[in-house]
Amino acid sequence: MRLRDNYRQAVKKFQPKPSYVANSLKAFFIGGGLSVVAEVLRAQFRMNMPSLTAEQAVLLLFISAAVVLTAIGVYDDFSQFAGAGSTVLITGFANSLASAALEHRSEGVVNGIAGQMFKVGGAALVYGIVAAYLFGLVHFMR
Amino acid sequence: MEYWSAFFVGGLICGGAQLLIDYKFSQIQVVIGLVLVGVVLGALGVYDWLVDIGGMGALLPMSGFGYWLIKGVIATTEQNVIAAGANVFRLVGVEIVAMIVLSFFTALICKPKG
Amino acid sequence: MKLVGRQTWVFDDVYIQATGTAVGPVEADGPIGNSFDVVHHDLYCGEKTWERAERRLMQDAIAACLQHGNVTIHEVDMLLAGDLLNQNVTANYTARAFPVPFLCMFGACSTSMETLAVGAALVDGGFAKRALAATSSHNATAERQFRYPTELGVQKPKSATFTVTGAGAALIGKEKGRFRVTAATIGRVIDAGVTNPLDMGSAMAPAAAHTIEQHFYDLRRSPSDYDLIVTGDLSRVGSVIVKELLMEAGHDVTSNYNDCGLLIYRPEKGAFAGGSGCACCAVVTYGHLLKEMKAGAMERMLVVATGALLSPTMIQQNESIPAIAHGVVIEAVRGE
Fold first, then answer.
1. Predicted local confidence at residue C105, as pLDDT
2. What pLDDT digit, counting tens, does each position of C73-128 carry?
3. Bridge partner residues of C228 (DSSP)
4. What is the ipTM of this complex?
C-alpha cells in the first residue's frame, strides 16, 4: 500500500508500537511491589489502631510520599518508567493534584493554585462521586 | 501469604490498566474506568471479597478509591437521600483533604522542576 | 521574477548577515551543544516563571544576533517573531522592548522558516533594509499549554517528541554576508487526518513532503541539487515517513536528508523520538548547520520547517491535526 493512496492506513507500519509485554510487566511488578509495601505498613499499624484507621493511615503515607516526590520533581520520571504501576494508584491521583497546583502557582494563589488544582484529577472525582451517589440510592431501593 | 496475594491483586490491576493504556485509552480514561469499576463492584459486594484477599493490593489502586466512595454510602445504617450525599466522603474524605492541603502548601513553597 | 511556479519565491540578493542562538540545559548537553551562542544551565534561565524564561531565551538570541551582525537595534527596520504560546506572548512581550516595527507570526514549529522567508521577501522587495527573524520555544511552557502540568506522571509513547528549550534569531539584509537566501517555498496547510497529538511526526510528514515536492517542481530541481535537505522536527517517526513519501514521488533523498529533531539530542537522553518546537529548527539551522556550511561542509541546503497546527481544544473536539511546512534555500557565499 502506498502512503499517498491511503495515508491513515499505510502510515501505521511506520508508527512505533508500545512494548506491550515489557510495559505491563513493569506495571505489574511495581504496582505489586508497592502493594506489598502497603500491606506491610498496614500490618504494623493494625497492632495499635482499628483496621479502617490503619488502612487510611497507610494511604495517607502514600499520598504524602507522592506529593513530596512531585515537589522535588522525581514523580514524573518515576511514572515514565513505571507507567500504570504508579499512575493508576492513589499516588497518581495525589500527583495529579499536586502537579497541577505546582504548575499554576505562577498564576497566583487564587486563580492558579486553587483554581487549577483539579484540572487533571477532577474528572475521576466527578465520575466517582456521581456513580457512588447513584449506586448508593439504587442500593437503598432494593 | 497475604503479602503474595496483595502483590498479585495490586500487580494484576496495574498490569491490566497498563495494557488498556497501551492498547487504546488515555491514562485519565483508565483511571476513571477503575474508579467506576470500584464503585460498581463495591455496590455488588464483589470488591469486599477482593479486599479480603488482596488487602492493600485492592485498596491502593484507584478502584479502591471508588470502592470506598460507595462503601461510605451503603455500609451504614442511615440510608436516605440526604445522608448518602454526606456519606460519599465518609471514608475517602481524609484522603481528599490530605491531598488538597498537602498540594496547596507544596505549591506555596516549591516550584515545578520541569 | 519573484514568484516562480505556484508556491516558490526566488530572491535576487538577500543575505543572512548574522545569527544568534540561546538554549537550555538539555540542548547544551546534546551532541551539538557547543555550537550555540548563549547557554543556560537552568531551565528557568534565572527567571521566575517558565514564560519569562522563554522570553529571556529570545532576548538572548536577538542580542547575540545583533552583536554578531555588528548592528544596533535602531538599524533594524523590521522585527518578525513567533513562538508556540497562545497569543504569541513570548514574541509580543519581547518586542515591546524594541523600537522597531513588528510583525508577529504563528506557524507552530514552522515559524522559524516562515519568519526567515517573509523577512527575506521584505528585504528583497525593498520594504526593509534589515529584518530580524526570531523564534523561540520552551519545553515547560509548551508542556503546560499543549499537554499536562510538567510534574504530572504520564507515560509518554515512543512517538512523542521533546520540545526544545531555546531561541534562534537571524539578521537578514542586502549587504553581502556569508550566507545567501536564494529561494523559499511557502507551504499549504495539509491535513492527513492524524489525530494523535503525541505523534506529530506522522501528522507533519505529508506537509513536509508536499512542500519539498512543490519546491522541486517549481524550480525544476531534484534532490541531487542540494547538499542537505533538512526538515524541522519530524523526529524518528516522521523522517522515515517523509523519505518514503518522497520516494513514492520519485525523489530519492536517502543520501542527503536529515532532521533537526534528530540532530539536537543524544538518543539515550530520554528525549523519545527527537526534538520538536519552534526552536528546534531555528537553533539547529542558525547554530549548527550554518557553522557547518561556513566550514565548507556544504554549498546549498534546503531547510523545511514543519509545523503541526495543534490546538488542545480542537483535539478534544475530535478534530485532526493540520500541518504546514515552509522551505528556505540557503547557499554559501564563497570567494576572496
1. 93
2. 999 999 999 999 999 999 999 999 999 999 999 999 999 999 999 999 999 999 99
3. C301
4. 0.92
- Pick C151's closest partner by Cβ from B21, B27, B113: B113
Which of B21, B27, B114 has the CB atom closest to C139's CB atom?
B114
pLDDT recorded at residue C1: 63
Burial class (CB in 10 A: 0-12, 13-18, 19+), C77: middle
A54 touches chain B (CB under 8 A): no
Best of C47, C141, C152 to disrupt the A interface by mutation (most A CBs within 10 Å)?
C152
Q: Which residues lie below 8 Å from residue C43, measured CB to CB, with a gap of 6+?
A: B113, B114, C24, C25, C50, C53, C139, C140, C165
Q: At A16, phi and psi to the nearest 5? A: -65, 140
Grid cell 526567515 in the structure block, residue: C116
Partner chains of C (3+ C-beta pairs under 8 Å): A, B
Looking at chain A, which residue has its C-alpha nearest residue B7?
Answer: A32
pLDDT band of residue C7 (cuts 50, 70, 90) is very high
Average pLDDT, chain C: 91
**Contacts by C1-5, CB closer than 8 A, 24 or more apart:** C2/C121, C2/C124, C2/C125, C4/C183, C4/C218, C4/C219, C5/C214, C5/C217, C5/C218, C5/C219
Domain ranges (residues) in chain B:
2-109
Residues 6+ apart with CB under 8 A from A14: C202, C237, C240, C241, C244
